[in-house]
Backbone:
């Protein structure tokens, strides 16, 4: 076993374990922290595969921005009432459905033959090449996604104004 | 636009002020080397003063002890053969004293007084308990003339009741004639 | 194999030198700040320990190490103990990508004067800077105290708001240099430092950097007169010291980044690279101290308005203008 495969299995165990702990925690802040550890592990995995750009983006966007927002909300809300509640069946069903889809994808990935294909050629590229590829080849998709984000932003702004009765500073809404 | 200019000017003034402060002489008084003379009436270490004729002023009336918010003053009263009261022992626990000065205000004889001497720290907290001999001084403090028994309306070797300074003759309490 | 070992030794030596220099200068930055702040306020500043108070940082460190390490009984113990380490660690790690000189030749090997030159160095800096928020937010939350929680929440909100402006202000620099690597960015400024072309980006970066390192006038997470000490209210001893070290290392790192992105990094006439970088870091730090000695703390809504309504639109416009100029 080479040093890389050793590192890979260590990271895989770390990611799986921390994700499993994250979804079973009752304390929301602990769950968020384990999820951050899991994101951190995946970032290291990307780095191990020779994709430092993806690793950095993973940490900045997922661990840095999204999970901080989660943590922010969780810290502000008091979750004591939820401590011993079991989730109703209505919420379990979509979760099981998503798990099934992911399981299928996993099986397909394991079964398919990947010995010859180089792992993630786009991800391993330098930042400049990656950016050119993304913005020259897939510019339409990027524009659609950014339009979607803009619509979401405007929607949130509108909701925030309506809910408050009177206008509130954008800073709060943008949070 | 005018607001912007005003804002920049205001910030610039602030920065130039602090920058000029860099070259001013600091106003700090460096304490152990330079000791500022405190005002006479500033409140620190407590003393027990004496009469102009050298006798103890304290008559052990317990008023200071009663008024003390932290109960740091304690004493035992006694009486001399000539009728003068005095404190057999008098104790102030400076570990508890908050130097509020209420004892000085309560004292009818100007015996207990606060002095500007504030350098009163000890390593051993028990050495902060001062006995009467530590507290007594050989001067009159802030009130050089006052002698309680010359105003008290009590008979003393200097004269009977009503014969001291500023005293009226005793009222005949058995009669209601003016 | 011997090549590998030599590389490893060189790397270790570089890490040791950088960490040692960072921590030592963090200690003396505290001294300089207290001394200069004193003079700005017509005071003397520390002058008891040693000549000019020069031994004060050592005395402070000894005091902190000897103090009792108190964990509040209602605190979340593990997170409470780890949070200061996160703050100090992320600040220290950030310096790994800052180049402090041109490559030198030692015993026939070319040794670059940077701990690690990765092609996504700028993103690495941002990743660590976002992770630093966790130390503040979790430290505040784990203390289980109202003051600390409020400080932690304020810290999280403030730092994510200003992270955006910080990142956006650097995009023109990346556009001009054409690379994320700090070594390349410094090399691109061989003729002219970027502050000449990007004064707006420079101003936005410095303001956002001060907000990022929670310094006055942006010290709302630890606002003494409303929150006790904010997110580190419950910390004592060397754990408080770690927060403190983190803050001052962060200040140096941001000074170094300002130097790298706008002031030409280690480049300068006559003197060797590391000394120029050091001079520039100290210059930025002194200006930060001057600002601290002058400006009062912002109100919370002013802070958010400055971040979202002034800095982010200004940096977006700046990106647009830079793009237009680069195209022409």
Residues:
């Amino acid at each position: 076993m080479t040093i890389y495969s050793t590192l890979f299995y260590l990271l895989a165990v770390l990611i799986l374990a921390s994700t499993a702990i994250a979804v079973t925690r009752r304390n929301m802040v602990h769950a968020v922290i384990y999820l951050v550890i899991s994101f951190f592990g995946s970032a290291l995995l990307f780095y191990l595969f020779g994709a430092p750009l993806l690793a950095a983006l993973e940490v900045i966007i997922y661990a840095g921005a999204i999970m901080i927002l989660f943590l922010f909300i969780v810290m502000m809300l008091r979750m004591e009432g939820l401590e011993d509640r079991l989730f109703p069946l209505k919420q379990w069903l979509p979760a099981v459905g998503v798990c099934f889809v992911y399981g299928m994808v996993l099986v397909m990935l394991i079964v398919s033959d990947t010995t010859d294909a180089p792992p993630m050629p786009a991800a391993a590229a330098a930042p400049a090449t990656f950016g050119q590829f993304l913005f020259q080849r897939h510019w339409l998709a990027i524009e659609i996604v950014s339009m979607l984000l803009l619509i979401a932003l405007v929607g949130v702004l509108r909701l925030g104004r309506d809910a408050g009765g009177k206008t509130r500073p954008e800073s709060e809404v943008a949070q | 636009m005018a607001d912007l200019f005003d804002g920049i000017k205001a910030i610039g003034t602030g920065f130039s002020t602090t920058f000029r402060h860099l070259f001013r002489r600091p106003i700090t008084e460096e304490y152990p080397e330079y000791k500022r003379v405190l005002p006479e009436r500033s409140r620190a270490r407590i003393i027990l003063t004496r009469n102009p004729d050298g006798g103890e002023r304290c008559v052990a009336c317990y008023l200071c002890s009663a008024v003390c918010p932290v109960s740091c003053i304690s004493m035992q009263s006694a009486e001399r053969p000539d009728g003068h009261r005095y404190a057999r022992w008098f104790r102030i626990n400076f570990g508890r004293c908050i130097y509020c000065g209420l004892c000085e205000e309560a004292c009818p004889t100007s015996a207990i007084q606060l002095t500007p001497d504030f350098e009163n720290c000890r390593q051993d907290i028990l050495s902060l308990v001062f006995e009467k001999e530590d507290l007594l001084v050989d001067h009159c403090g802030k009130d050089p003339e006052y002698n309680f028994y010359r105003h008290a309306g009590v008979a003393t070797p200097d004269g009977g009741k009503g014969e001291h300074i500023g005293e009226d003759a005793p009222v005949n309490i058995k009669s209601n004639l003016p | 194999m011997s090549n590998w070992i030599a590389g490893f030794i060189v790397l270790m030596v570089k890490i040791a030198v950088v960490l040692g220099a960072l921590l030592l200068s963090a200690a003396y930055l505290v001294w300089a700040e207290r001394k200069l702040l004193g003079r700005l306020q017509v005071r003397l500043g520390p002058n008891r320990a040693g000549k000019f108070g020069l031994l004060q940082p050592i005395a402070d460190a000894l005091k902190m190490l000897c103090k009792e390490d108190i964990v509040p009984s209602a605190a979340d113990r593990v997170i409470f103990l780890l949070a200061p380490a996160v703050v100090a660690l992320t600040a220290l790690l950030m310096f790994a990508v800052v180049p402090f000189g041109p490559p030198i030749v030692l015993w026939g090997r070319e040794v670059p004067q940077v701990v690690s030159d990765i092609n996504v160095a700028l993103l690495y800096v941002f990743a660590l800077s976002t992770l630093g928020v966790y130390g503040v937010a979790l430290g505040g939350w784990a203390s289980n105290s109202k003051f600390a929680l409020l400080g932690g929440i304020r810290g999280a909100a403030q730092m994510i708001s200003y992270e955006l402006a910080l990142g956006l202000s650097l995009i023109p620099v990346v556009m001009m240099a054409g690379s994320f690597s700090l070594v390349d960015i410094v090399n691109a400024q061989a003729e002219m430092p970027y502050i000449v072309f990007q004064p707006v980006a420079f101003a936005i970066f410095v303001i956002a950097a001060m907000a990022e390192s929670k310094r006055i006038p942006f010290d709302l997470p630890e606002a003494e007169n409303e929150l006790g000490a904010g997110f580190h209210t419950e910390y004592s001893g060397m754990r408080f010291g770690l927060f403190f070290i983190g803050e001052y290392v962060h200040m140096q790192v941001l000074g170094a980044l300002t130097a790298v992105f706008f002031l030409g990094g280690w480049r300068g006439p006559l003197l060797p690279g590391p000394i120029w970088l050091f001079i520039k870091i100290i210059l930025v730090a002194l200006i930060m101290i001057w600002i601290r000695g002058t400006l009062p703390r912002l109100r919370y809504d002013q802070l958010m308005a400055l971040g979202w309504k002034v800095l982010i639109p200004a940096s977006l416009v700046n990106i647009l203008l830079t793009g237009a100029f680069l195209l022409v």
